[in-house]
Design a protein that fits this description.
Layout: H1 12-18, H2 20-35, H3 42-55, H4 59-71, H5 77-80, H6 96-107, H7 114-122, H8 127-149, H9 156-167, H10 173-184
Helix pairs in contact: 2-10, 3-4, 3-6, 3-8, 4-9, 6-7, 6-8
Length: 188
């Protein structure tokens, strides 16, 4: 049960509906970051979101974004392997430096050094991919804190429903942003 009992529904969406004027621009940003043009596929971006959430032990976000990533073509075996060591995950070798980077940025942000970024570039990623990975890491650290700070917990059934919704371009981040914009403008 959420720490604020009248969060309805008791999900991140319920939290956002309480302050739609804040949620609308955040969801619009999320739509662009997660689904806009990028050298990282939508599946790769969801994998990064799920991975960061796993590093933070945010079961809600990890569960939802693991399902979303799988819906977008990431092998489910990646999530069964756990998050302890990016080098042991069954993902493309070029993604491993990004996952190592976002794990370190999540756990010890003040210890980031040029060599960490250089490893991402050495794997063949360009500056846009690097910036996108950093932004996803920052955004999902934020979302993880919002979820855990409100005491939001759901089960695998909800993770599947939400993951399927987020992977659908007509019901995903953009639709949620439009809904929050309507609420913010008094369109209930």
């Amino acid at each position: 049960m959420p720490f604020i009992p009248d969060i309805d529904p008791p999900t991140l969406v319920g939290v956002m509906q309480r302050r739609p004027e804040l949620a609308a621009p955040l969801q619009e940003y999320t739509e662009i970051l997660m689904r806009g043009p990028s050298s990282l596929s939508a599946g790769d971006r969801e994998l990064i979101a799920a991975y960061v959430s796993g590093v933070n032990a945010c079961q809600y976000c990890h569960g939802i974004h693991a399902v979303t990533a799988a819906q977008l073509g990431i092998d489910e075996a990646v999530f069964e392997a756990g998050i302890a060591d990016p080098d042991r995950l069954p993902v493309a070798g070029t993604l491993k430096p990004i996952l190592r980077y976002v794990a370190k940025l999540t756990e010890t942000p003040s210890r980031m050094v040029q060599a960490d970024a250089d490893a991402v570039f050495a794997a063949g990623w360009n500056e846009e991919a690097f910036e996108t990975a950093v932004a996803i890491c920052a955004l999902f650290n934020f979302y993880n804190r919002v979820v855990d700070g409100h005491g939001i917990e759901t089960d695998r059934t909800y993770w599947r429903e939400a993951g399927q919704r987020l992977s659908d371009p007509y019901r995903g981040y953009g639709a949620l942003g439009r809904r929050m914009r309507e609420l913010a403008e008094g369109g209930g």
